[in-house]
């Protein structure tokens, strides 16, 4: 409140000075506060800069495109920026809102047919075109994910093989008592499924904790409110489902190997 | 004797051993990839920056080369100032711009660099000759593929576009004199090169440059030269290889951190797998080990045999993982090579013998560590009690 009063006072004292808004990172790094006077120009070190007053400090938006380029941001009134940048009566783009999604197609058609000198695009298409960096990172993460799944599958198969082989004598006794091979396989598979389920629930917990840690670290590093790691219901379902399938397959293969061995051989006779 | 016993034990459970080696191989491949990524990106970038021997770059103050559209004015004055320093041996001003090339009913937009062909450090000539005259241009392979032009062809080249009239301005006919490869060009980027005055004239920036590339004498401290330039020309930022690498480190720190985390996880998974297998294997052979102890085999001998089993699994997996790691690194590199704006010559996964030795060393250590606990446990079993329990079982 006091800061706004100070700005209002400064504006009354010097009506020729325009106001600007700066992002919180610039304010923090350069030690700028609301009410401070700055000189802005389109060229570094230009002697003909324009003196302005900082009237607001903006919170950074959660825009992934801003992460790689750690730029500072300044917001100015359009006519002011046009004047400072010697841009004349020009703009880089217009943002147009339509009455609902159904009006987008007709608006695009009408603008492109009527306008001379520019072209209208859907915001969604522009977003796709400018998010190539994240598409590449996403593809990279998927490839790493596949390698991790292969490693997990082998690990799980190894563990199941060991678990089942530990019970060679139990299985031999069951088989000699007349319990069918199918029942033994079912029992082992059920055990494997239970193990996989418990393991994946624990994994979801570890994943959630890791996700919190990642967000805390990278939000601080890049000073951005962006979520770097997001655990969704689809991801949890996929992870638990995959663990179950891998566990069941590993259990099935391991138990199959065991029931095909004669019971007396399992006893070591 | 120790080797024979370890080998016999591993062969007794061939499937289990094979699976363990496979598991370690995947973990080793991942570890190698991550070690390659953590060091390769930086090394690859350093090699690229040093490829033509320019130790310094000058960009508009507060920016990185070609990071923004800002240009440095007063090129001739800056060149004159820089020539006052006897340590500076080569100065190559470069101006970047965009050109439009209408061919048939299509118009191709391409990046263009203006530089002095005799001293430039941005491209290498693949065939033909450098563009010397004001109506000459050299093009890269992506440009040739997209437009279908050949060396010796003429084409109309424009730098300006009037959106009101939808026409190209500052248009002139240029002859293609050569085929070039841009050292810092991104993947699938159409790019061309001209003489510096040609681009300055076409872009209507008669005394501007986007950056200067500077060579200093080999016996000179580059950082001293950098500080001198920034003091003499306060409008610019001078970047040495070290400062450029710092900037790259900052921007791509995510990949180094990811490499560290995944590398650690891979090592831990490999360690866990070998430990589990050796522990179970030892538990199964408690009777056998105790009999050996009862026959007078020393504790050290037992420990050596069990540790050797872990090392054999780890090393076999690591060797298989080396090949697998190189294949996956190539695949992962092909994904990251399409990173927008990054030079195509940059390798995220650069193979260095040091990386391979480091991975092998870390895995060997984890293999030894994995066998130590079960080995000591087995060697320390009370002989009489264990024999009695095993006999009853």
TL;DR of this structure?
By secondary structure, chain A is of the alpha+beta class.
From the structure above, extract its key features.
heterodimer, A: 269 residues, 11 helices, B: 393 residues, alpha+beta, 10-stranded mixed sheet, two-stranded antiparallel ribbon, 21% strand
Percent of sequence in beta strands of chain A: 5-15%
Count every beta strand of chain B, where a strand is a DSSP E run of 2 or more residues.
14
- Helix-strand sequence of chain A: HEHEEHEHHHHHHHH
Measure the end-to-end span of chain B.
28 Å
Total helices of chain A: the number is 11
Number of helices of chain B: 12
User: Strand count, sense and closure of the main sheet of chain B?
Assistant: 10 strands, mixed
Gyration radius of chain B, to the nearest Å? 31 Å
Beta-strand content estimate of chain B: 15-25%
Helix/strand-derived category of chain A reads alpha+beta
What Rg of chain A do the Cα atoms give?
32 Å
Order of helical and strand elements of chain B: HHEEHEEEEHEEEEEHEEHEHHHHHH
Number of strands of chain A: 4
Q: Spatial order of the strands in the main sheet of chain A?
A: 2-3-1-4
Task: Write down the overall geometry of chain A.
Answer: elongated
Low-confidence stretches of chain B: none
Identify the overall geometry of chain B: elongated
Sketch the major β-sheet of chain A. 4 strands, mixed
What oligomeric state do these chains adopt? heterodimer
Overall structural class of chain B, as computed from helix and strand content, comes to alpha+beta
Write up this protein.
The complex is a heterodimer of chains A (269) and B (393). By secondary structure, chain A is α+β, with helices and mostly antiparallel strands. Chain A is built from 11 helices and 4 strands. Chain A has helices spanning 2-13, 24-30, 65-68, 78-84, 102-114, 123-130, 132-165, 168-176, 181-222, 233-259, 263-266; strands at 18-23, 37-40, 50-58, 74-75. Chain A has a 4-stranded mixed β-sheet. The model of chain A has no long low-confidence stretch (mean pLDDT 82). Chain B is of the alpha+beta class. In chain B, a hairpin with a 4-residue loop joins strand 8 and strand 9. In chain B, the strands form 3 sheets. In chain B, strands 1, 3, 4, 5, 6, 7, 10, 11, 13 and 14 form a 10-stranded mixed β-sheet that branches. In chain B, strands 2-12 form a two-stranded antiparallel sheet. Chain B has a two-stranded antiparallel sheet with strand order 8-9. The mean pLDDT of chain B is 85. The A-B interface holds A 43-45, 68-70, 116-118, 132-133, 136, 139-140, 143-144, 147-148, 150-151, 154-155, 157-159, 161-162, 165-166, 218, 221, 257 and B 13, 15-16, 19-20, 22-23, 26-27, 29-30, 60-62, 67, 70, 73, 163-166, 234-235, 250-251, 253-254, 262, 266, 269, 272-273, 276-277, 280, 283-284, 328, 331-332, 335-336, 338-340.
